[in-house]
Amino acid sequence: MQKCPECGGEIKENEKFYECIDNEDCGYRINKVKFQKQSQHWLETTIEDESLWNKPIFGTDIPIISAEYKRLYELCENKQSFGMLLEIKDIFEILIKLPTLLTASAIYIKSSFSEVESKLLIAMLEKQLSLGTWESIARSSQELNIDNPIENWLTNIIQVFKDGRITQWRNEEIGHGALSLDETDVFQEDIKSKLSILKKFFEENISTLIMLKEPVYQELMESIYFEKDTNNNIHFFDSYGYGKTSRVDYRNGTYSKKIESQFTSLSNSLSISQSTNRLDGCADGGVREAVVQKMFEELHKVDDYETPTYLVDWLKTNMNNHKKGLFLLQMQRGMGKSMFSRALDQLSLTKIKIPNTLVRAYYINDVYSYKLDEFTSVVDRQILNKQLLDKRIEDKIVGSAIPKSLDSKSQAKDLTNMLHEYKKVYGEENILFIIDGLDEIPVTQEKSILGILPSDDDLPEGVFILFTSRVKLSQKIQTKLDSISFTDKKSVLKDDADYISNTNKYIRKYIKLDLDDTTLVFIKERSDSRYVYIKLIKELVKTIGLEIEDIPNADKIIELYLSNLKAKYGDKFFTNITNLLAVVSTQYEPLTLQEIAYMLQDECISFKLLAWINDTRGFFRFERSYRGNIISIEHADIKSYLTKDKSVLDAMNYILSILVENITNEKHTIDLQIDGESYLLSHIWDYAKNKDTNNKLKNLIFIGSVLDSLENVEKQDKLLLNRSIKIYSQLIIIMQKLNQDENSHLDRNYLAGAFMNRGITNESLGKPTEALNDYDRAIEIMMILEQDETIHFDKSNLAKAFMNRGNTNKSLGKVTEALDDYDRAIEIMMILEQDETIHFDKIDLAKAFINRGNANDFLGNPTEALEDYDRVIEIRERLNKGETIHFDKNYLALFFMNRGNVNASLGKPTEALNDYDRAIEIMMILEQDETIHFDKSNLALAFLSRGTGHYSLGKLTEALNDYDRAIEIMMILDQDETIYFDKIDLAKAFMNRGIANESLGKPTEALNDYDRAIEIMMILEQDETIHFDKSYLAKAFMKRGDANASLAKYTKSLDDYSDFIEIIQILGQSESIHFDRKDIALVFMNRGYANASLEKPTKALADYDRAIEIMMILEQDETIYFDKSNLAKAYINRADTNHVLEKPTEELDDYDKAIEIRENLDKEKIIYFDKNDLASAYIDRGVFYHSRDDTLKRNQDFDKFFNIVVELIYFHFESGNTEKAIQIFQKNYQNIDMMLDNNMLRNQENIQRYKALSEE
């Protein structure tokens, strides 16, 4: 119990203070840290307590142990409590590792191993070893029944670990760090307890430990498990993984990792398989992961943020007063503009809530994130894609939400459209996108975010963008900002009243409550009124009890902070802090914990690393990303200080030298899947500063190894793909320089391959223009190599390059150029196929024919396309004779579907149907195979295409079944947000099924299908992020209009036809869009009929006029086929309307023209022409003459009508089609009987024939 120094009463401890509680009049209250300084430090009593120390060990000169135990004593003397904690951990590690390693050494030097011995050696090599794993291996060592003092040592230390729960204690205590260490009575007693355990162990085992100096044990310490450096320091074996041996030098607190052939040989002889999973390879992975997660949850919390209400009010007012907007916030350096952005950012601190608004932020720095590629990648994958979103939006622009375009205006528009879409997906009214730190963009950078900053005109409603920057800017950035018309700007300086008020609140709240104004001014002067320093002052006051009057100037605050940390750690352990700061301050992009561990020569995230990060958290920014938690330097001032500090720079140079030595080692297998290795390789040339390092990176074996590793990168991993681009680019620069050096012996095949593979990678990232440039360079080099007879060149690579370039050209819409490339690829492959001396994969040739066939089909060359597809079948049949050759079934199914499309376009529906059958058969097998990825949208498209084929052959029921299957699959896909398919295909399926239903006499079902098709298309039409062909929507309106008309729903059909015409008028303004004029004419005619049915004869007449006008133009066009019977029908309809409008002259003229057309069609024996239509026209004109009292002409037309009807009835009777004959009779007998009754018919022979028919 602590005593009050004033009255001797009891002292109560709270979060920050000790205060007297025994005497109300005493009023004693003091900062905890200051109290501990003033009173005797607990470590002073600890060092004096003889019961806690075994001092005879100091003079024994026992290897490792006596020196480390003496260091522990010195740390206690210097009151370095956290250093003591780490040293105690090290000593326990040594005490359990040393006898275990000696046992392993005794086994290793034997010529053969027993099963138990092999098991022990395997356990030490098969994964990364934690303290818990070492304890487990030590227990296994007891099974060997070693008859020497080591057995007693093992038995005793294992018991110590068990009784003292040493492993659990290490896990719970080490990861918190020195600054969060609360030296409570419990902590003090815990340290003393561990000292007592060590003292007791040394007392009981000193005789065994001293034996380590004997020759037999010295010999064992010469084995591969121990390594001595030039200073005679012993480096313990620590673990083995991924071909490298990790060692620890307890003397200096450092770790190293390198390839050691003896351990590689031992691993191979024991048939050890290394885990490829980072967490699986790390012992205590689950425990460590939980600790990491908990730590980051705490680090993401910012409990000391003082909301700048004046900035929040400014922003909210602007957003309330405007439907959209561009805002600019400028503040002087270090005043908290980035922290304000993070407070708004819903993926960061989320301290400030903006109602009904999705908030995202992008943070620029001058190292990497100012680059346009980085911006597009992070915005697409990290900022806006936090949860699973509508895949249609993500795939609108292949590979990246913001395209890599030469037109910066287009990019700005694409960005704002994308923001608008994500706002809708998240269901928010607004989106606020923050681009923080424009001032960080280097002046010399040509392509940067500056190039795609949008204007107010680019913004859709509900989209707001906030830019932040310092007040003082470069001329280039200032000029750019001056060109933007901002909705509002706000500039904040250090002497502004609002900023002063906010910093005063922060200082009083988080540093000291009872500060007078003079002291406040002093703190702000010392910190230069910048939050970056104010926050460090707060930490120093909290952790070391720094007095206000002792606060140094701003440029010394970071130094003081680190000095305080060093005092707590001690020189040995502070080296690790320096290494950590070196890695993070010099990084080229934010790093994950695993990547930091890799850079620090550790395969796993150690508990010590967590402690180091915890103690330097004030220097770091912690962000959530699609890669997990990432770490970077919080502020430019901190970065500037660290990168000028000699100890930090020396540490980074040493780290880099070890990393380069390892990664360029000929025995090292480069693996870009390893966290950290891909980062290092993508920036290793940026890090390399000296000639020796650069020479190692130019080593041809190293270059070849890197190129090999790049080919194994998964195409779905965008992070690795982006890093691969950087690596390829660096290798290409080096190889181009080497290519100019006659003594370099560079194989130019490497250079060509690098260009081609970078092209493939760019293609995977959705950068076809860059890919095209790479393929151009690859082909250029390969064509030179092809002519050089002095070197070996594989021509199949040139063929692949042409094929790749063809695919890219096709994706860019350059189909003619693609066709040329496919021609070249096929030409080369055909030559290779004939050469029996080389191995040639004929499947590549088949794919080339497929690609060329697709290109020919696209260019309107169906005959050539079919010839290419036939060649594919020929190759496949040859391949099937060889059992070892496998033809990709996905590719084969798509081939059959494409050939079916070509056959359909050539008017070969039966052949098309056979192809669709084959495609569906293969796809249905693939669908059941869970071992492969199968895109079910292709199966839906195959059913859709086959349905169209069945319909064209009049197989309406089969067509309907196929459309049902296509719709069923697409509806399932539509519910799965992880799968992308083009919804226009679903709309087409509904429309096609509607047509089939209509043809089957199911107008109600047809109408429902047209409704669904139109519903989907109207949603797509409103989506500005995709290209939608409105001609599909027009066609759907036309078909629904027909269906409504067939059900006598003329008002609805009128609306549909009008919508069709409105779209056509819009499309007519675009020369690039062609719509069938025959359909346009029919819609005008059908709308005329709807208007007539709704008793709107004037409007009907206008529609018929328009229909006839278009049809007469079509009639004269010899390049197209035109059905003249439709023109005749239009004349009949217009005649009926002229009758209603009492225009007899025009009415008769229309009947004459209709009859003339139908008579000609009858004379021409047109197969499709129905003479019933001609008969109907005669009766219509006969009725007209009857109304005009022209008996002669009336009777002539009635006779013509009557003769045709009688002729048709007898024709069908005699042909055996009695049903059709009766149908014609029933349709016309009332008119004929009326004519007979009124003596209007003259052909007596036909009259007698008719009467005979009537009697029958």
Automatic annotation (TrEMBL):
This is Nephrocystin 3-like N-terminal domain-containing protein. The keyword Repeat applies. Residues 314-470 form the Nephrocystin 3-like N-terminal domain. InterPro entries: NPHP3-like_N, P-loop_NTPase, TPR-like_helical_dom_sf, TPR_rpt, Ycf3. It comes from Candidatus Sulfurimonas baltica. It comes from the Bacteria. TPR repeats lie at residues 846-879. Pfam families: NPHP3_N, TPR_10, TPR_8. One of its GO terms (biological process) is receptor-mediated virion attachment to host cell. GO terms for cellular component: cell outer membrane. Keywords: Repeat, TPR repeat.
